[in-house]
Amino acid sequence: MNRNPYRALLALTVALPLFALTACGGEDNDTGTVVTPTPTTPTTPTTPGQTGTSFNVSRCLNQMVGNQTVASLVVPDTLQINFANASGFPNGRQLADPVIDVTLAVLFLDLTKHPATTFASIPLNPPANDLPFRTAFPYMAAPQGTPPIASGTGANFNFRTDAPSAYTRVDRMGMPAVATALIRSDSKTAYNDDSPEVDATGKWVPEITATLTGLTNALADDLAAAKLTPCATPN
Amino acid sequence: MTRKGKYLGGGLAALLAIPLIVAVADRGGFAADHLDPPARTDAAVDPTPDRAADITDIYAWHTADNLIIAFNFAGPQATNLPAVYDRNVLYTLNISTSDSVTNPAFPIRFRFGTDAAGNVGIRLENVPGVGTIEGPVETTLSRNGVQIRAGLYDDPFFFDLQGFKQTQSTGTLSFDNKRNFFAGQNLTGVVLQIPRALLGTNVQKVRIWGDTARFGGQI
Fold it and tell me: Whole-prediction pTM value?
C-alpha cells in the first residue's frame, strides 16, 4: 500500500487530471488535429443487478485526468507519455502501478468528488506484485521456480526475414484493460485486428460507450450505497 | 484525498467490492491483456491458443534520461516451464514521437531464431540510435547507450482474476485483495532501455503500442 507507485498516482491526480474518456477523440492521420466523434447513446441490455435507471456516460468520458480527457486516453488505444510530467499511470505505465483499480475509479467515479486513487486506496485488488521489482535494468523480477533458462550464448541465428505483410495479426495492446474491459467478447477479435489509426476514426467509440453504459447501469446503485458519486448522469 | 481513501478503507471496501465484481463479471473481465483476444489466445475458448503471440502487458515509463519499455507475452505460465521463443511470430513495438498514430517514427520489430546448436537469439530492427541488432536471449545487448534483454521473467502483473472468475461462475463473491492470480507465475518478455536523446530532438510526447502477427496465418 505504501509503495512508491501511489505517490506518483497521487501527484498525478492532484497535478493532472487522471483519465478522461471525452467524446473519445483521436488524432487525425494527416494533420494531427483531434477528431472528436460524438458518442452515441446506446440501447442498454438488461443487466442482472441493475436498478432500472439508465445513465449517460458522456460526462465520464469527458472527465479530465491530468490535462487529458478519459476518452483521449483510451482512444486511440496507446500508452501516452508526456516527458514533462511525472512518470506513472496513466502518464505511461510503471511496473508497480495499480492500473486496474485506477481504471475502475476513472471510468465510474465523479473525479471532482473522488480522487482517481479511491479504489487503489482500499484497495480492491492486490496492491503490489508478489515479488519486488529490480531497481535497475531489466527491472522485472527474475523468473520464479527453477525453469529451464536459455543458454545466453550463440551466434549466426536463423531468423525469418519475411516482410510484415507475410504475417497475420493475432493481438495488439496499448492501454491496459481497454480491450478486455470495454470491448465486448464478440468484438474482441475484430478490435485486435484494428490499429490505433483505425481507433482514431472513432470506429470503436460506440462500442466503448455502450459497454461503459451497461456497466454503469449495473453499478450505479452500488456506488451510491457506498456513498460514491458516479460520473455518469441519469437519463 | 488521503482522508477520503482511509474513510473508504473499512466496511465500505467490502460493500464496494461485491457489486463491482458481480456486475463487471457479467461483462467480461478486467485484466491487462493476458489471454485476449480469447478466440485466439485463451485455452478455455481456443483449443490451439497462440501463447507466443499473446501479449500480456506493455509497460512504458520514463526517467530523466531514458525511455524504458517492457513488451511481455506468453504468460502467465507455471514456474517449471521454459520461455516461449517462436520463430514464426513477428512482434512490433511502435514508438511514435508525436501525438500521431500514423507512421510511427520507430516501428521496432523483433523475432526469435536459433543457431545450429539450438541456442536462441533475438533480432530487432528499427531500434532508436541502433537500427538492427541481434544476439542471444538471456543476455543484455548493449549498443550506443541502448540496452535490450529478452528472457524469462516473473509475471509483474497483479490482479485477483481467480476471484473474478469464481464470482462469475457462482454468483457468490470471491474477491480478495490478498489473492493475486499472477503470483508465482512467469512469462517471456523483452525489455528495452533507450536514451531519450536517441528519440529525436525536442521530443516531448510519445505514444507506444504493440502487436503480434504469425507467419502463415493463425494457429
Answer: 0.84
Amino acid at A11: A
Instruction: Tell me the C-alpha distance between A139 and A135, whole Å.
Output: 6
Q: Which domain holds residue B196?
A: 2-214
Q: For A164, name the nearest residue in chain B, comparing CA atoms only.
A: B90
Query: Taking CA A17 as the corner, what is the angle to CA B15 and CA B14, rounded to the nearest 5 degrees?
Result: 10
Which of B28, B60, B101 is opposite residue A181, by nearest beta carbon? B28
Contact yes or no for A78/A196 (Cβ under 8 A): yes
Within a domain: A90 = yes
Range of the domain at A190: 4-38+50-126+172-234
Preferred mutation among A10, A149, A170 to probe B, highest tally of B CBs within 10 A? A170
Instruction: Catalogue the E-assigned strands of B15-170.
Output: 55-62, 66-77, 89-96, 106-114, 120-127, 131-136, 141-143, 146-154
User: For A110-169, what is each residue's pLDDT tens digit?
Assistant: 999 999 999 899 888 899 999 999 999 999 999 999 999 999 999 999 999 999 999 999
In whole angstroms, what is the distance from residue A16 CA to residue B44 CA? 40
Contacts of A158 in chain B (CB under 8 A): 87, 113-115
CA dist B198 and B144 (Å) reads 9
**B219 belongs to a structural domain:** no
In a domain, A135, yes or no: no
Probe site for chain A from B152, B185, B198 (most A CB atoms < 10 A): B152
Residue with cell 498514430: B101
Q: Do B153 and A13 touch (CB under 8 A)?
A: no
Tally the domains of chain B: 1
Evaluate whether A21 touches A69 at the Cβ level (below 8 Å). Answer: yes
What lies within 8 Å, CB to CB, of A133 at 6+ separation is A95, A96, A139, A140, A141, B156
ipTM of the complex: 0.86
